[in-house]
Amino acid sequence: METKTKRWLYPAAIVLLGVALGVVAYFLMPWMVRIATDAAARDAFLVRLRSSGALGVATLAGLMGLQVVVPVLPAEALQLFAGILYGTLGGGLVCLTGLTVGTMVNYVLGRTLGAKALAVFVKPEKLEKVRGLVQGRRADTVVFVLYFIPGIPKDLVAYAAGLSEYPALRFLLVSLVARIPSLLSSTWVGASLAAGDTRKAVLIFAAIAVVAVPAFFFSERILIWISNRRKSDPQPQEGPKP
Questions:
Q1: Which of 14, 68, 231, 241 lies 20 to 30 Å (CA to CA) from residue 37?
Q2: What is the pTM of this model?
């Protein structure tokens, strides 16, 4: 009976999750595109967040967490808004709060649904490759590098960490610390724009793009390079200890 229940439970969970994410994307994407392309809509959104006080902070943090689970949302735009509204450090804290929740949701999805269920969202061979990278003696270093470099898809790493039984609190700590430099640089751009220092904002953005754009297009090669380095490791591949 238990086996039969599990046999129906996982497909049902996948369908429900897929429907929920599809509904969220359907309703949010037109709105986010309008904010990204329409200056009036963007200004109205920022004014509404600023005037909403704690609710505005919670809304922005919630959107930041949601974009981790639904990666179609523009994370960079949200980080920019956070910097404009709350400054470099304040905006960074708001974004980091949302990232904490979203990252752990993906980790839990990886831990509970399993590789077969996640194949609906990501390519199984790529997921298995990353899963192999986040195991072993150098797992902490690999996770740090993957989260430190902007442009590499982070949702895949969180799924793989959950699958590999990487300790939850340890994964959260390593991944969030690695994200801080990139996150603060984005909110710094927003804070510079809010202060009217367009030149500084452009220079910071250009510096981020120099790293993020190549990392995005060559993310597959980066994963292969890390994998080859791991294969040459003479040490036994044991999972990270809690």
A1: 68
A2: 0.72
